[in-house]
Amino acid sequence: MTNDTSGARQLAVTLVRSVSGRLRTHQACVRGLGLRRLNSTVLVEDTASNRGMINKVAYLLKVEER
Predict the structure, then answer these.
(1) DSSP designation for 36
(2) What is the pTM assigned to this prediction?
(3) How far apart, in whole angstroms, are the C-alpha atoms of residue 10 and residue 4?
(4) Is the Cβ–Cβ distance between 19 and 30 less than 8 Å?
(5) Per-residue pLDDT for 5 more than 70?
(6) By C-alpha distance, which of 35, 2, 46, 45 is closest to 60?
(7) In the chain, what are the domain boundaries?
(8) Under CATH, which number does the domain 10-65 receive?
(9) Residue 57 burial class via C-beta count within 10 angstroms: exposed 0-12, middle 13-18, buried 19 and up
(10) Which of 8, 36, 37, 64: disulfide with 12, CB 3.0–4.6 Å?
(11) How far is CA 53 from CA 6, 26, 50, 58, 66, in A?
(12) Hey, how many other C-beta atoms are within 10 angstroms of the C-beta on 53?
């Protein structure tokens, strides 16, 4: 799944650890970023709200700038 936004910086976010047994708020952040299963990758815009969700669950993710 990709979000095509021209001109805006994007981040490639990959779920590398399972959300099973995690806090519900952390599970919601992962779903809010568009990640559904382990090792799935999505492109998200580099916005303050997305950065906040990424920072909250950083221990579950791998993030690369694009």
Answers:
(1) -
(2) 0.85
(3) 9
(4) yes
(5) no
(6) 35
(7) 10-65
(8) 3.30.1390.20
(9) buried
(10) 64
(11) 22, 8, 5, 8, 18
(12) 20
